[in-house]
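The methods section describes the discrete structure representation at length, but only in general terms. Each protein is reduced to its one-letter sequence and a matching series of backbone shape codes. I believe one specimen quoted in the main text would settle the matter. An entry of this sort, consisting of the sequence and the corresponding backbone structure tokens, reads as follows.
***
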Amino acid sequence: MATNNHLGRPEYVPKPGAFAVVTVDPVACVDYLEDPEATAACSLLTSKDYVVYMYGSGPLLDPQAAFREERPYFVIQGVPRDIPKQFIEAGMSIPIPPQSLAIADHPSGRQPLKISGAPFPWPDCYLTAFTRVFVRCANVLTVDPVVCELDDSERFRVLRRFGDDEERQDDLRYDAEEAKAPTQNLGMDTNLETATDDIAADDNDEDVVDEVEGMDEQEAVAVFRGLFANQASEHLPAVKFTHDLSQVKEFNDPKGYFEELAVIAEIIRASLARKEAAKALISQEDAAHYNEKTAELLQAHQASHGPDAPVHVSASEDDASSASVGNLKPPLTPRVSRARVCIARIKKHLRRIIC
């Protein structure tokens, strides 16, 4: 039998096996952008409360991380229906009491879940394996007693039913793909190369096992720490959880959750567009500044040395040049040669300044 947190001990919320309320936190969703305009826009948004079931805990977490990842399932209200495009049947559901339909009349034909704690507040609801979402929440311990949950045996029943339904969905998808594909190979893989690859893959798996068995203690510790190293992705929706189901004044369709995220996604896109525009403007300004400085230095150099200053050549160099003049290309004029030297020096000087 599951137990509630009656003693007020801080725990992670939501607790696995419990029903909870999830609410989008728009401002936290855009904090990572560090954009006051996006933050201001999100602060004007209002979020609804949605009922979820916490199937299990998320990935291994870093206790020091600001956020952790969770994977709740939305609770759906109403009679389950088929969704052929997603290979979902109405029977892929588990009723939550109270139910107005008899077991025989419910599309799933399954016994309703047995609730521990307070009765579930809303009628005609159900769980399904296909409403899971990935979110992040503040990685803090909170005193928030569980109101409504499933005991261990019922949690295991949900686990088995979800597995059955996901397998059934895979079968339906496979059958649909097979119906569209050519039927000449009768479902058998006659490609020798593919079969050889499979055998090689099996051999590789054995090599991996050998490598793991040969791992020393230091490597094992590093791998273990690596499991905790990753924080919840900042791109996951930021939400708040509570076990207090009374917070929900009206049962909300989970579609509203995705509509809220769509609005926040537009704010994020606008923020990223502004950042790209700002980067482009800075690049243009840098280029203009570079050209301006180049012109100033060139002008200063010409003012101090003069663009037409003669190039002094020794007598021996002059004789040698005259002797072979027929074999050489016409020399560059002093003006062009000096200008190139000046520009090269200026560029070298600018590179030193910029670097």
Remarks:
- The longest helix spans residues 255-305.
